[in-house]
């Protein structure tokens, strides 16, 4: 074949060249990305507000409907459903489609499952479903409500991906799936997150909306309390839920259900019976175990999953002495036992083409409008069908009334067509009626059969009138829709699974679970601390040997012993001039003879720091106009406003700036007009007005309080209320257990900085002073403890009131080598 010349080739290529469109790569990429984004938004990630479904779920349900997988049918292999859906309507990956189908079958994801699955369909522990060749499926009864009347031209059908079949653009949906099962989808530049709800509540809300079109969100929330998750749990705060429903966006706090249960052995367990929606149970348990391992949560002994087919049950066994409420608070804070569900009620409106944030009322209104369209089209379909049947029945009735003439025409006709024309000409039958008469069986001539035709005609005429009335009356249309809502509620309605709390979610304060009572705090020189019931100390007369209070090491002994309320803050002052704070109830509870636990477990102290003074700091004093007096070992005093210690950080703060080799020894609360009294190891004392020590900043150093002799040091400090000097005694105890009371008025007021006056006669028999503490008649009893843990509790009245220069009497009989360590007042 000869080659064409160049001119001919050029002319042939010219039309091809004209199809080339010059376009910027930037514009091409932009247009292509916009097309892709819209495809994802409209055809993949977002649901239609009318039936609440994404295309993949709509196609799965329609495929099962076509395959006849009704609730009364047998289960069929999931692979068949997936294959049919892929081949006919959804040309995407089989794994993605099967995952979407599995979700419809999972009762821990779907409030009302659409697929009745047989086999392993996954679990709340995150287990994947078995392969599609192993599982079987059919539709659930409620899923049929999504497709009811689809054969009655209630929705539009569109071509499938290869134009070989037709698929519904929307399902008729007699139930508001978008609210009942919710949805979660991430599109391009937007996302949707709608939680599931209770069918009965939503149907009641729809009925109310039909009756009251002008209702508001608050009105609807009288029926729809909030989300109803398939995993149960608790939702909180009417205000937050109202905000989300009124705007279409918001956060709702959800919690799993947890209960503190006392065990037979007297301990406590935390029992979790439900978890938050979309939380993996196994991951939750692992997270708790990790927190225990990392010591972020303390007090948990064991975690056990006792869940079975009857329900979820996670048992958290607590250690002896563990605070259940504190541990539960930590679980809420650090795990998904509590989390926020961020609502973003985005769906496609306007025939499924426009993404829009919707309020609760908007979703309900769109669904009602969808039902109006479906019911109208269903009525029109039924009307057309009834009119067509009535037309035939009218012809049959007329033929039966003139049966002899009809038979004569048929018998004399040479063929079917002539007979049809003859009937149409003689009796004015339409072609449809004439054909129906020709196809009529002889048995129709029986009287009973004739009666059936007449009755059916009457029934059809009645139905036609009702359908026409329905189509003419919007009120009747709404009444029918309302009746259908009520029928669905009665058929499928159930109780809420998620509990509703109108108040906001609140971490229960540990203080709310701990009774206010007086307790004794014991701190040893070695840094072991505990709190215990003061009633465990039996009152004795002075001079007794006491009882063993604490199991200390040989080199350890009790250093500080105070009483305070369980709810009081405790300020721990250290020898380095720092102060730390904790609650009394935070300290470990122990019996009288137990050792306690290291204080460094509760305070972030340095390894070289030692607690020298502990001050109970009740809430009432935080707001009062009070000050703190601090006194060092070398006799330096400093006054600081108490508000400086209102909130002490966990790592502690500086309380006083110390000179080299000095140590902070005492801290007391003081009010305006009070006096300060100090006592030393050698039996000296001084009393001066608190005003002599001006208020300083927290980091200041202080001023001279008393001039000490060589080798002397402070052993006690206290404050005397204004005008109370005749009602207050200075209680002193020496190393060998001798003690006495001396009236405060016996100590004249001096200027600070002097050597002071005698407060006790120190001899070899008594040993040096170890303790000096102010007491009042209200003091009641005192508890004294020795360095080896011997303790005595006795009435303050049993301690004699003596002069300043006396040595006192035997208060506690000590064993050889033991000495007084601390004293506290009850």
- Helicity range: 25-40%
User: In DSSP terms, counting alpha (H) and pi (I) runs of 4 or more, how many helices?
Assistant: 19
Question: Whole-number average pLDDT?
Answer: 87
Oligomer: single chain
Distance between the termini: 124 Å
Secondary structure class reads: alpha+beta
CATH architecture of the largest domain: 6 Propeller
* CATH uppermost class of the largest domain: Mainly Beta
Shape: rod-shaped
**What would you report as the Rg, rounded to the nearest angstrom?**
45 Å
Q: Would you tell me which CATH topology of the largest domain applies?
A: Neuraminidase
Please mark out the parts with pLDDT under 50 across 5 or more consecutive residues, or reply none.
Answer: 544-548
Please indicate the percent range of residues in DSSP E strands (runs of 2 or more). 15-25%
The description of the largest β-sheet is: 5 strands, mixed
- The domain count comes to 4
CATH superfamily assignment of the largest domain?
DNA gyrase/topoisomerase IV, subunit A, C-terminal
Number of strands: 42
């Amino acid at each position: 074949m000869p080659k064409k010349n160049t001119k001919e080739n050029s002319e042939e290529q010219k039309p091809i060249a004209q199809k080339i469109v010059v376009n910027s790569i930037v514009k091409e990429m932009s247009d292509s990305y916009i097309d892709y984004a819209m495809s994802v938004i409209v055809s993949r990630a977002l649901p239609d507000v009318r039936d609440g479904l994404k295309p993949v779920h709509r196609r799965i349900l329609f495929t099962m409907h076509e395959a006849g997988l009704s609730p009364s049918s047998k289960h069929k292999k999931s692979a068949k459903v997936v294959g049919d859906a892929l081949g006919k309507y959804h040309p995407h990956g089989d794994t993605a489609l099967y995952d979407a189908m599995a979700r419809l079958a999972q009762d821990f994801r779907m409030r009302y499952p659409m697929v009745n699955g047989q086999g392993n369909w996954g679990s709340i522990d995150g287990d994947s479903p078995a392969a599609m060749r192993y599982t079987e499926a059919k539709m659930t009864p409620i899923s049929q409500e999504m497709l009811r009347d689809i054969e009655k031209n209630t929705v539009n059908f569109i071509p499938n991906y290869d134009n070989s079949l037709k698929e519904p653009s929307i399902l008729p949906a007699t139930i508001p799936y978008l609210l009942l099962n919710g949805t979660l989808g991430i599109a391009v530049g937007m996302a949707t997150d709608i939680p599931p709800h209770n069918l009965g509540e939503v149907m009641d809300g729809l009925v109310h909306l039909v009756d009251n079109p002008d209702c508001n969100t608050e009105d609807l929330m009288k029926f729809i309390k909030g989300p109803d998750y398939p995993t149960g749990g608790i939702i909180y705060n009417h205000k937050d839920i109202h905000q989300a429903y009124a705007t279409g966006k918001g956060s709702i706090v959800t919690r799993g259900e947890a209960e503190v249960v006392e065990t037979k052995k007297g301990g406590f367990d935390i029992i979790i019976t439900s978890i938050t929606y979309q939380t993996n149970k196994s991951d939750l348990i692992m997270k708790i175990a990790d927190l225990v391992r990392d010591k972020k949560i303390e007090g948990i002994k064991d975690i056990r999953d006792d869940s079975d087919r009857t329900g979820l049950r996670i048992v958290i066994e607590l250690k002896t002495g563990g605070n259940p409420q504190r541990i539960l608070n930590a679980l809420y804070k650090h795990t998904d036992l509590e989390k926020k569900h961020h609502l973003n009620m985005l769906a496609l409106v306007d025939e499924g083409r426009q993404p829009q944030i919707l309020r609760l009322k908007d979703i309900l209104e769109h669904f009602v409008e969808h039902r109006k369209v479906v019911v109208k089209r269903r009525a029109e379909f039924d009307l057309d069908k009834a009119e067509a049947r009535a037309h035939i029945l009218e012809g049959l009735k007329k033929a039966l009334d003139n049966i002899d003439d009809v038979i004569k025409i048929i018998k004399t006709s040479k063929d079917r067509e002539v007979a049809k024309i003859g009937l149409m000409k003689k009796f004015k039958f339409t072609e449809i009626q004439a054909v129906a008469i020709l196809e009529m069986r002889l048995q129709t001539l029986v009287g009973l059969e004739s009666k059936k035709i007449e009755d059916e005609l009457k029934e059809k005429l009645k139905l036609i009138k009702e359908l026409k009335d329905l189509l003419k009356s919007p009120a009747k249309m709404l009444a029918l829709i309302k009746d259908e809502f009520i029928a669905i509620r009665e058929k499928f309605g159930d109780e809420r699974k998620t509990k509703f709390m109108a108040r906001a979610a609140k971490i229960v304060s540990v203080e709310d679970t701990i009774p206010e009572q007086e307790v004794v705090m014991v701190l040893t020189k070695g840094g072991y601390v505990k709190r215990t019931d003061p009633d465990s100390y039996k009152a004795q007369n002075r001079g007794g040997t006491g009882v063993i209070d604490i199991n200390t090491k040989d080199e350890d002994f009790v250093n500080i012993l105070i009483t305070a309320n369980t709810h009081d803050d405790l300020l721990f002052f250290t020898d380095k001039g720092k102060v730390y704070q904790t609650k009394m109830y935070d300290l470990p509870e122990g019996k009288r003879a137990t050792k306690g636990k290291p204080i460094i477990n509760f305070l972030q102290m340095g390894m070289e720091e030692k607690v020298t003074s502990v001050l109970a700091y009740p809430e009432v004093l935080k707001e009062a106009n009070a000050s703190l007096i601090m006194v060092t070992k070398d006799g330096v005093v400093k006054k600081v406003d108490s508000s400086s210690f209102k909130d002490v950080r966990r790592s502690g703060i500086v309380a006083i700036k110390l000179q080299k080799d000095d140590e902070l020894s005492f801290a007391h609360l003081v009010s305006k007009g009070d006096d300060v009294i100090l006592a030393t190891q050698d039996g000296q004392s001084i009393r001066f007005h608190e005003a002599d020590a001006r208020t300083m900043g927290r980091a200041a150093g202080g001023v001279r309080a008393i001039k000490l002799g060589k080798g002397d040091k402070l052993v006690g400090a206290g404050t005397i209320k204004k005008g109370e000097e005749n009602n207050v005694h200075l209680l002193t105890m020496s190393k060998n257990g001798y003690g006495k009371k001396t009236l405060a008025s016996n100590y004249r007021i001096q200027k600070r900085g002097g050597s002071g006056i005698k407060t006790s006669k120190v001899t070899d028999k008594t040993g040096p002073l170890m303790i000096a503490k102010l007491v009042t008649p209200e003091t009641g009893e005192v508890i004294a403890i020795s360095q080896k843990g011997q303790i005595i509790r006795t009435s303050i009245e049993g301690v004699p009131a003596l002069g300043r220069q006396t040595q006192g009497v035997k208060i506690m009989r000590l064993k050889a080598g033991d000495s007084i360590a601390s004293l506290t007042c009850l």
